[in-house]
């Protein structure tokens, strides 16, 4: 883990210029930060047509192969971001288990459930930031052990408790704030703590509390790394603390941009929305001399269908800007569409740094566990198509 960390750390540090710039903003400036340092890469990007951009975006392996020609260290980095897949055979779920669990979520929960059961150490479970306790329900049924489900939202605790009671499961929901001192009362040294997709500081807090309460095991699947209370990332392990890599909240969003590629409809919708936003930004620059980026709130799909002019009128109303009547909307839409492809092109480069950054963060958590007397491992508990947040970090306390 240490050697992987060092490789990824230097890779990220040496290539900051490629991943720190935000493609959405970068495509709107005429500057190309890589022009001076990597002319062959810039030339290659400029040679790509829209179809090739789309193909490379959808075929990560091919993209890595192409980019390795211009960024040779990418090869070693890529070899160090792979982890074993959890060996899953499937769980036999009693009827009613899936009640109220949306499709893909069910796959994630069952996979994580099986993975933690496989690595179980302890006599009971603590489910952190449990929501309605979907994962806890599976753990309770399959292991016949008590589950404490800790959750902030009272309404989720109530509905989770009701389902558990109806199914006669030994689950106890506790409403509370993960960051409060009272959260410590839900811990005891018999528990295996688990957290499926607890955001940023919430899973960090669980790892720290599990260690301080001497839990026999803790297993997390992290998500939303940017949801932290500090302005910048606070490293956990000593190796990450001594790294020169500083990560802001917006850097911490980069791994999350690796979303599951949606179907054609989702793709078309995104293209339309981004082209409208970029086109609107061009319009503001030219018509109202507004050079800084004006963030426009999210828009309903049905409103997008009204067309570009309607989008611009809506956005300017929201932003209290007045647009004249003789605007050539078509020309701004054409500019927006061109910028969309420019953005897609630039994000091909950022794309290959997303997983290395995510693994850097995962290794920080795992190495912290090792430093605290746990045997730590990282694996992928499901296919990325089920959720791209498919890392499982697992720690088992070493008995002395
Ligand atoms: C992304 S959801 C994950 C829920 C569940 N583990 C799952 O995968 O379905 C995160 C959960 O954390 C809860 N949460 C947010 N802030 C919290 C806090 N300060 N203390 C406890 N729970 C919190 C939310 O209410 C939400 O249910």
TrEMBL record:
Taxonomy, superkingdom: Bacteria
A Pfam cross-reference name: Methyltransf_32
InterPro entries: Methyltranfer_dom (IPR025714), SAM-dependent_MTases_sf (IPR029063)
Gene3D superfamilies per UniProt: Vaccinia Virus protein VP39
Domain Methyltransferase: 108-230
Transmembrane feature ranges: none
PANTHER family: GLUTATHIONE S-TRANSFERASE C-TERMINAL DOMAIN-CONTAINING PROTEIN, PTHR13369
Protein name stated in the entry: Methyltransferase domain-containing protein
Organism field: Vibrio coralliirubri
Lineage: Bacteria, Pseudomonadati, Pseudomonadota, Gammaproteobacteria, Vibrionales
